[in-house]
Amino acid sequence: MRKFLAGFLLIWIPALMSAQEGVDRFYMDMRASFHQETEDGEYNSQMVGEYLNLHLLGHITPKIDYRIRQRLNKKVFDERNMFNATDFMYVNWQATERWSFMAGKQTVLIGGYEYDAAPIDVYYYSQFCNNIYQCFTFGFSANYQFIPGQSLIAQVCNSPLSLGFQSIYAYNLAWSGSFAPWWHTIWSVNAVEDQDKRPVNYISLGNRWTFANVLLDLDVMNRAGFGQKGFIGTDMSFISKFIWSIDNWNVCAKAGYEFNNARNIDSKGRAYDLVIAPGTEYFYAGAGLEWFPLHKDNLRLHAVYYRDNSAHKNNLELGVTWRADIIKK
Question: Which of 75, 221, 224, 323 could form a disulfide with 29 if both were Cys (CB 3.0 to 4.6 A apart)?
């Protein structure tokens, strides 16, 4: 890894510095933690490097920008998906004041603030986010901003239920906007094909409320296969997050409840939902502290505890996240 990183920097930094008119920012971010946990009564502790990411953002022309995010601690090549470690690799064309078009590897537009957050900022996930095969796939999207701060986005991309590049797709319509200055939304309706080309419907409603120094998220998601008897209310996720900011400290809490009725299977006995198995009833919750010693977000220390009812896991995590700019205009 060190040789790879050194070679990458030696090759790319001179090239980027000689073409800075096209590079707005080039930076790295990293997270490392010390875990102490019990799982089904067994104690384990470990010090781990969790994230090492490279970010490249820039412009090809004033109206065409691009973004790349590469994870250096993730398996780079998979014969089914040679861009497995690349989250973003897209170009975006701002065609008019209201219309923009994106092509390349991008986030699959499934609503919800937990799903939308940068992975390096999430300490523990719901089963849905943990189990979905791909959150980032190749595709095309069109964004229409009908008024400032309110956008409707249509996307066609490889299915997040694909193991790599298969002939299965997702068709997504998302609204990113707000009802008020204190109530923001990421809502979506999705038709996602599974590996048998069966369409699965997601209705995902991500809500964020902000009041002074308090932030509250509530994500609600309904999942159902077409032909499923209980279309609403039998396969769902509820995820909430709370952050109270006090000077350079954050007091955080998060909890989630997910379930899927055991009867949600087709006539061949196959689950309609490949992400949350039929018969699942999952609960997880935790709380923690974040400290920004430099009063900036480029250095963060955290202490987080959480537990769940599946593996009966109790996890205490102490860690540090930092960011280093290489090029910044």
Answer: 323
